[in-house]
Specification:
globular, 9 helices, mainly alpha, 179 residues, 0% strand
């Protein structure tokens, strides 16, 4: 009797693997872009998302129980990993401040680089709200739930972030016109 059970278990593992792979293929780039926009470091974003997916694989059956979407859990873990990495690497941030931003990445247009530079200037809570709401198109209620804030606080962060981003982007535009 163990042979049919083993065949069934292997087939079931194959289906779970296919489900995980499909989730990874459809979500990884978007999550990397979101974490990159939040941290300003593409390698940290890639590492955080990879680690989040590795952790998700270890508990995939629980994350997808009842047809649940694992993406919010993976996104939260990736963002937390990125923040932890950032806290541990304050020296790297100091070096960045001394040496300036990294060179443009291949395939990224000047507008993208300017936007990420502007996002870096926001407070972390404002930057996270902007990334979740505008880049990932999450409703304010979901952003509030994921950040542990009230919807009113999220709206305030978004309003203040828009004001700061507008000022920075306007300054950049005026500087490029003068040049």
């Amino acid at each position: 009797m163990s042979a049919p059970l083993t065949e069934w278990a292997a087939a079931d593992r194959g289906a779970v693997r296919a489900e995980f792979d499909a989730c990874y293929l459809s979500r990884a780039k978007q999550l990397i872009a979101a974490v990159y926009a939040m941290t300003g470091e593409v390698t940290e974003a890639e590492d955080a998302v990879q680690e989040a997916f590795a952790r998700a694989w270890q508990r995939w059956d629980r994350l997808t129980a009842g047809g649940e979407d694992p993406t919010p859990w993976i996104r939260t873990v990736a963002m937390r990993l990125a923040v932890s990495s950032w806290r541990k690497s304050r020296n790297r941030a100091r070096a960045h401040a001394r040496h300036g931003p990294p060179p443009d990445l291949p395939g990224l247009g000047p507008d993208h680089v300017v936007l990420v530079d502007a996002l870096r200037r926001l407070r972390p809570d404002q930057r996270r709200a902007v990334v979740l709401h505008y880049l990932l198109d999450l409703p304010i209620a979901v952003v509030a739930e994921e950040t542990g804030a009230t919807p009113g606080a999220v709206k305030t962060r978004l309003r203040r972030a828009r004001t700061a981003l507008g000022a920075h982007l306007r300054d950049r535009g005026e500087a490029s016109i003068r040049a």
